């Protein structure tokens, strides 16, 4: 286990979520699946308790902690993309697998975890400052999934 690992709380589907992430994002994998050695408030002995996984190179564990804790946008995975095809692929995988669209490149997977599918073109435009950043920002504010061509056109003015 890595020295610093992100722990993501799930109701009961940590293994399914980890397997989806591993199938969707490069440099992702499912590691150990640890089963409960005894009964606990929201499960029983033998249930999957913890799943070690990696998402785009980031070590994580999924904890099947029950329904008490719900995800919100205070935590999200941000995936940088290089092309519209890559942006579309990740967005469509998350939203098309029972997820939900949000604004400005944000979406949620079917387990309620928030994702930012962020083209590098958007990050570069916002980092440029001045009018370029303002125009790109204004364009982004009208979008759900980010349209790279529209961001680049707005940046140019």
From TrEMBL:
The record's section on InterPro entries has: 3_dmu_93_MTrfase (IPR009725), Glyas_Bleomycin-R_OHBP_Dase (IPR029068), PhnB-like (IPR028973)
Q: List residues of the PhnB-like domain.
A: 3-118
* Highest taxon of source: Bacteria
Question: Would you indicate the residue range of the signal peptide?
Answer: none
Which PANTHER family has this protein been placed in?
Answer: PHNB-LIKE DOMAIN-CONTAINING PROTEIN (PTHR33990:SF2), PROTEIN YJDN-RELATED (PTHR33990)
Write the protein's name.
Answer: VOC family protein
Q: Which organism is this entry from?
A: Rhizobium leguminosarum
At the highest ranks, the source species' classification is: Bacteria, Pseudomonadati, Pseudomonadota, Alphaproteobacteria, Hyphomicrobiales
